[in-house]
Amino acid sequence: MLTIDKIYIGGKFVTPHGTELAPLYNPSTEQVIGQVRLADEADANAAVAAAKRAFATFSRTTREERLAILRRLSAAFSARLDDLRNAMIEEYGATRALVEAGMPKAASVFDEAAQVLENYEFTRVRGDSTVTLAPVGVAAAITPWNYSIVFVAQKLASAVAAGCTIVVKPSELSAIQTQIMTECIDAAEVPPGVINIVTGRGDVVGEVLTTHPDVAKVGFTGSTAVGQHIMRNAAATMKRLTLELGGKSPSILLDDADIPSAVASALTAGFMNNGQACFAGTRILAPQSKLNEILDAIKKNVATLKVGDPGDATTAVGPLVNQKQFDRVQDYIRLGQQEGAKVLVGGEGRPDDLPKGWYVKPTVFTGVTNTMRIAREEIFGPVLVVIPYGDEQEAIDLANDTPFGLQAYVFSADTERARRVATQIEAGTVLINRAFGDPDAPFGGVKQSGIGREHGAYGLENFLEPRAVTA
């Protein structure tokens, strides 16, 4: 059985001061496949101290020096893409189709950050003042278990480009992925203390990082509830924040959309990553005039989806990450029926041919109103709702009637009409006739879906502070 018993501080693999051991599971089999030794408060403090020491030098590095580090990181991650893919499949059940398509992003984010850095103007003249965009200081990154590798890489790339040092607290559920990533960072010969990796619990290591006076900025990807807690913690020392939080994204099928194509894309957006995606399109808004046609298309499409072994390239939906998440999603499926919604496809329990593993039947509810909890709360599993609307304005109103605003999807045969609708949606990103985003676009949410943006120059600037010198 695999034992991961090292963290990464000051450019070295070290044994944690913490002694707690947490099990690691294969969600396809429910079997324990390893254990990870968790860091504690002392380890978090040591990592911040190492980052603070390194910042004094790293914040003064040249553009060329940071470009060289980014390129080495890209090469190191590229060399381990197969290992990273396999870890994601084994450790949290990501489907092979998903990781084959998305895992190159773990390396390419460093190349993208390098492209931004090459041409970025850190010094600008405004009136009588010289304005310098300077690194904000020691940063902390707290990341979830779903698509952990890309979330970590994105934050690392922006921090390094800006000249910040960083302490990363990945989820303890992604320890195998974290171990491989840490080996990549070590192979890239990043200067000691610039990147530190401390695997531990949020209520232990996370508390230190979000309250520590020497941490200037926190980047967090995860639930809205935890984001609110981090925001409260950060207020005492006025830390800069980037919060990429939960969502309840609408997929608006306009009445002129090609129904088979739009339904297929909407279901892809809803079931991606086994439904464990913050930007999943979990509310399908359907025109009343086309409702029966859309429901028939949903039933036909879901019937073709393969649920099972995530390592199989033909699998569309794999298992949920653990028993806790499985139970949570089952509770929501029961809740939906108690609220009066009807199960169109799916329902409670595992698929009949999968007696083991945390598999959930891809489930779609009809007879749903936007006031039901299954239409308002983030379920984080393969559970979607169909909500009918009368006219275009009602579709827009329903889309915006949510506390969230991370991503939205619009499907129409008329691109200009879709753009007009998209400009009225309260979301950080709106995709038209597609299920996957643009890696060059800023990513983040409005309302309770977060603060700030990641990717490209927007991500870089989250790690910078303007300083004006006036003479």
TrEMBL record:
<dbReference type="InterPro" id="IPR016162">
    <property type="entry name" value="Ald_DH_N"/>
</dbReference>
<dbReference type="Pfam" id="PF00171">
    <property type="entry name" value="Aldedh"/>
</dbReference>
<dbReference type="InterPro" id="IPR029510">
    <property type="entry name" value="Ald_DH_CS_GLU"/>
</dbReference>
<feature type="domain" description="Aldehyde dehydrogenase">
    <location>
        <begin position="16"/>
        <end position="469"/>
    </location>
</feature>
<comment type="similarity">
    <text>Belongs to the aldehyde dehydrogenase family.</text>
</comment>
<keyword id="KW-0560">Oxidoreductase</keyword>
<dbReference type="InterPro" id="IPR016161">
    <property type="entry name" value="Ald_DH/histidinol_DH"/>
</dbReference>
<dbReference type="GO" id="GO:0016620">
    <property type="term" value="F:oxidoreductase activity, acting on the aldehyde or oxo group of donors, NAD or NADP as acceptor"/>
</dbReference>
<feature type="active site">
    <location>
        <position position="244"/>
    </location>
</feature>
<dbReference type="InterPro" id="IPR016163">
    <property type="entry name" value="Ald_DH_C"/>
</dbReference>
<protein>
    <submittedName>
        <fullName>Aldehyde dehydrogenase (NAD+)</fullName>
    </submittedName>
</protein>
<dbReference type="InterPro" id="IPR015590">
    <property type="entry name" value="Aldehyde_DH_dom"/>
</dbReference>
